[in-house]
Design brief:
The protein is of the alpha+beta class and 384 residues long. It has seven helices and 23 strands. The chain folds into three domains: 78 residues, Sandwich (Immunoglobulin-like); 223 residues, TonB-dependent receptor, plug domain (Ferric Hydroxamate Uptake Protein, Chain A, domain 1, Beta Complex); 49 residues, no CATH class. It has a five-stranded mixed sheet. Strands 17-18-19-20-23 form a five-stranded antiparallel sheet, with no helix packed on it. A four-stranded antiparallel sheet has the order 3-2-5-6, with no helix packed on it.
Length: 384
């Protein structure tokens, strides 16, 4: 009896640890739903969004539970139970739609009264293993195309377009970014922490962005940061540690083969040409004689690390009375590059402090508010 129980328990553990790729289609009352958030209940950071035709795919444990959420629809949980395909039909929730408020232009509006194309994102969906917010938007916002040109710390901002390009020429072709009503750059958005965001809305079409004129031709991102809540002081925090590596390194030939092929190429073009590398140099490099005069280095191994470890720390303090509220947030990031260096000669840091003190004369009149980065210092090494 004990042996049978042990075998069943062992098989259940193996089943629980097995990961499978689950895919399927998500439909609403009458059509496929695009932009539905699909996440693993035990780990919300493992998530994706449905694409064209409501199709989604996500790698999860065989015994996991998938959570489907979409604005205006009831939240749905479905156990995987080892199935590689789960087709889902979501039920509309009119009550939820009545309470959803989105940022439109210079104000807010209920979702049910919006006729233009606007997407609202839960800031929790933007959390991920990176200190750069722009790298978390790809695949989470329908209609947005995002791409990253570099992985160098401090210069790894992703560029993005909303429904393609709406203007051409030498002017600005990127979307308009408004953080707390102030036009901001891509770098300002990149350094913003998801923990400090209250609302995140994307205006996609001309109807939604008309109030911004020609500057809104490429779409508008409206971000509102958190403010203090009246009540007892509350402290929130998030500490993360992640490992980064190159997706793929260059595969280069060894030095001996390179010199031999370079000589062969020179003789192929001109049989009388002078050889780039003498046979003596090639032979002594093969033999390993005097590595100073005849080096045989693998520069990929000498300059680039196999992986690097990064840390991120974020803390927030909120509280106050109905007439004087405060919200303070601090972020400390350690973003290391993949280039090898001497630890005695480098110090990497990225410190950003944010203060937000709304002082109210009445509960509905905002007299003073500032949102100030006090210190932001970065000294990064490496690239890729």
């Amino acid at each position: 009896m004990f042996l049978l129980f042990f075998l069943i328990f062992t098989n259940w553990q193996a089943f629980a640890q097995t990961e499978i790729m689950v895919s399927g289609k998500i439909r609403g009352d009458s059509a496929a739903l695009e932009g539905v958030t699909v996440s693993l209940k035990a780990n919300a950071s493992r998530s994706t969004q449905s694409g064209n035709g409501g199709v989604y795919s996500l790698k999860v444990p065989a015994n996991g539970i998938l959570v489907f959420s979409y604005v205006g629809y009831q939240r749905l949980e479905m156990p995987v139970e080892g199935n590689s395909r789960l087709d889902v039909k979501m039920i509309s929730d009119n009550k939820a739609l009545e309470t959803v408020v989105v940022s439109v232009g210079f104000g807010t509006q209920k979702k049910t009264s919006v006729v233009s194309s606007i997407t609202s994102i839960n800031p929790k969906e933007l959390k991920g293993p990176t200190s750069n917010l722009t790298n978390m938007m790809a695949g989470r916002i329908s209609g947005m195309v995002a791409y990253q040109r570099s992985g160098e710390p401090g210069s790894d901002n992703a560029s993005f377009f909303i429904r393609g390009l709406g203007s051409f020429g030498s002017g600005k072709v990127d979307p308009l970014i408004l953080i707390d009503g102030i036009e901001s750059s891509n770098t300002d958005l990149a350094r913003l922490q998801p923990d400090d965001i209250a609302t995140f809305s994307v205006l996609k079409d001309a109807t939604a962005a008309a109030v911004y004129g020609a500057r809104g031709a490429n779409g508008v991102l409206i971000i509102t940061t958190k403010t203090g809540l009246a009540g007892a002081t509350s402290l929130s925090g998030r500490i993360e540690n992640s490992v980064s590596t190159n997706t793929q390194n260059f595969k280069l030939t060894d030095n001996i083969t390179y010199m031999e092929l370079a000589n062969e190429a020179a003789l192929t073009r001109n049989p009388l040409a002078a050889l780039p590398y003498s046979q003596t140099k090639i032979n002594r490099t093969k033999a390993g004689d005097n590595p100073v005069l005849y080096p045989n280095n693998n520069w990929i191994d000498l300059l680039i690390k196999d992986y690097t470890v990064n840390q991120r720390y974020n803390f927030g303090l909120s509280g106050g009375s109905p007439k004087a509220r405060y919200y303070l947030a601090g972020t400390y990031n350690v973003d290391n590059g993949l280039l090898k260096r001497n630890d005695l000669n480098g110090f990497n840091n990225n410190v950003l402090w944010k203060f937000n003190f709304p002082i109210l004369q009445t509960p509905s009149v905002l007299l003073h508010r500032y949102h100030l980065p006090v210190l932001q210092k970065s000294e990064h090494n490496g690239c890729c």
